[in-house]
């Protein structure tokens, strides 16, 4: 007996998995993913690239099927496009290390648009999102790391996750889900070349991936066929788009474990490689016995893995964006301000003399022991020499928000409040309440408060 | 001085080329491309995959910006999607050998939607289409043949052509055109894997390519940025999506020659590899001195190049679709019916005893001389042994419709009439008249007769 085609195995998993099959902690975790996504989307809604995409969607017009985080309602496809773009622009959305996928920004907009349009329940949505994460994480793991050389995994692999989640919400049967996955894969796109210019394509990628996955599912619902072996087929996704791949990752323990729990959250509004050092700085500052104050610091030596040194050793960042990739800035910011959230990365902090003075005392270097544990552990060692000559040494193996160093729900709620502090307090708190009680929602067509406004 | 980036060179060409720069024969030829496209699109409009895509577009809704070949009007993006899908389903659309691109089905829907929405002139449309063909042919040539191993050139490379044509119609300046090309390339998709299942993805590819190219141009108009070296960049289209490439093909004689003239038209409704043999059969049948009649035939030996033998040697096709890939059927059909158009490939002809009897006398084999000239020449030698013992030998190097064996405008008009014989005669003839006088149209927003109906 030969193994079923990968799409078929995934389709069976998608069709058969019900909300009732999810362990309680998966349900709770998925709701936090939704909240975290919503925060990123609302925080990004007014950024220029998102404004442009929203304007275009408005000009195109469409039936009022789903809500936009930028306000108003539009067609399900346009909602997926705009919301998918909006949630990837402030760089605070979730990340899965093994597949290098930011799943929320692709899976959730597609799922939400389908759920709103078709009036599905909160439980349906939770199950669909957990399934969508699972599907794209598996495909991303199968093609990692070689696929990532050229391709933006979040967009390419994410398209499958969007189709899986949307297909689940449409109630597609196994055969139709195979076609949906097939036509998701044959639309998969998103090259890294844009990064050379810092171009806006990054948000187009995620918006389009959400839209394309939803499109594949909606067409499959009508009987539109696609390739049945899009992953492993001779002219399919694996062979065409990755130098090496491990197909077994797609089905390994499929249905036994929910990989959404492997998801990491970003608490600090900077490059992920700066996070372990920020965590250490904050822990020293918050030490109840001996809280570290900036003026006590004579020297800080930060020992990181290779990417920390290669990407974040910048003693003199020239812009707020560059500051997010400066370990010196991030550590000094954390020690001076006690936070490194969206609100802390500003022109003001960039030129704050207290921060700049402290930055001069911070040195970044490779720590061979920390590096040996990479990439399984994204760790950092920090050695602080005090003015009096004493030395404090601390170390972490995982940035806060990794599954091994989980962030508490309260902290994610706090992050959400910070990301949405431009909203009226009442609406912000109602969002938190709604998302954390998502399983109680009977009909998502009526989900968003205040009519058409998220 | 280094050469400008490829996108910049193309953008400059797109911006600077005006209708007035086109030689008269390019204008005439482009109009024939439009007519041929329209015939394919109208002939395919009611096919199941197109019906499904159209239904979905209807459900999504949209402003009435452009006409659908399936009837009615919708948003520019949806029009590009539906019309792009419709024009690739009856397999009679044009083909460019060197780039392996069917340009019409991607470039024209995107251009037409932009032109209708913005009320551009017929001259603007003609120039944009000629430019769009040029751009995608060049990119396709640069990545041929290796790209074609996995990728459907028409969709992937076609996306650039759609963006180029739409960008021209939007009046984008060089810098914006660079961004449009960048975001076209980063959306490029379409894997051949669907062919294993004969899935409907083929039409999704062309519809999406038209839509994605138009989307890239519309976003660029708003200032949305993209990668500036999408073709040759280290993580761009060439490196990611083709094993080998020749970047010089992109700019070789750019602006000096209009590659749209290299386009081939399909006259017969079958696999292109059967066309030279059909041409020969029709010429023997139409010989004014000695018209060949089926009952005179004792034996026909068809000598082809390798693909003729590999793909079209099928003495007993089981379906109408399979019959289009059976050289025995195609040659017998041509001799019995005197035509091999859309109307001739039917269940009736498939089981016609006269055709079946003749098929038994037809043999397909490799002709080393013909094969040696392939792929520059798609030739065939045919040797007919008559009942009386005499032998007729004929040979062609290029199927009818290749630039080396051009089809007359009158023949393409005849093909259009056959493809649209389900339409009222008045509408059909008006279409012909309108397209052949396209340069007279002042405002394409008002182009289609009978209001919203193509």
From TrEMBL, chains A, B:
MmgE/PrpD C-terminal domain sequence ranges: 268-439
GO molecular function annotations of the record: lyase activity
Protein name: MmgE/PrpD family protein
Species: Brevibacillus composti
Domain MmgE/PrpD N-terminal: 8-247
SUPFAM superfamilies named in the record: 2-methylcitrate dehydratase PrpD
Superkingdom of the source species: Bacteria
Family named by the database record: Belongs to the PrpD family.
InterPro entries reported in the protein's UniProt record: MmgE/PrpD_sf, MmgE/PrpD_sf_1, MmgE/PrpD_sf_2, MmgE_PrpD, MmgE_PrpD_C, MmgE_PrpD_N
Gene3D superfamilies xrefs: 2-methylcitrate dehydratase PrpD
